[in-house]
Amino acid sequence: MMEAWAAETAAGGAHATAHAEPFYGAAEFWVAIGLAIFLFFVARHAVRLISVALDERAERIRNRLDEASRLAEEAQTLLAAYERKQRDAAEEADAILASARREAERLAAEAKDELEQTLKRREVQAMERIAQAQQAAIAEVRGRAVDIAIEATRTLLGERLTPAQGQALIDAAISELPSKLH
Predict the structure, then answer these.
(1) How far apart are CA 175 and CA 181, in angstroms?
(2) d(Cα 96, Cα 126) in Å, to the nearest integer?
(3) First to last CA, the chain
(4) pLDDT band (50, 70, 90) for residue 53
(5) pLDDT tens across 153-171, in order?
(6) Are the C-beta atoms of 150 and 139 separated by less than 8 Å?
(7) What predicted TM-score, i.e. pTM, was given to this entire model?
């Protein structure tokens, strides 16, 4: 029985090899090749889309960071300008006071009453100048800070606020208006 089976297998094997097609002649081979090419192009397109989306997001994040950095630098500059103005006002006040003291020593011989009136008048003027300079500097810094805060709020609200949330904020502001005006 083994011999019969071996003979049959050998005859069938020889018959199968004689009529076997080359691998590239089979339809399954070309379907696999077509599928591989299709998957290659689909994957290439998908990778391109994903990289573009990631690049755009990175650019938006970079822009936001640059804007935040710019606003921080601007606030730093305003703070430094305010401190410089305050320091200059203090130096000016010191200079005015020193001048007033020298004049007071010179005029001491002439008239004590006149000297006291002059010193008081100059000191009031110096304090008014200092107060005016401080008020101007504070008003400028506050105004700029308000502008920066409004711009930052506008940017954030524009990016994150839905129309429904915006309408709710407007309605709340309108309802608070009578209590704010009185």
Answers:
(1) 11
(2) 7
(3) 115
(4) very high
(5) 888 777 887 888 888 888 9
(6) no
(7) 0.31
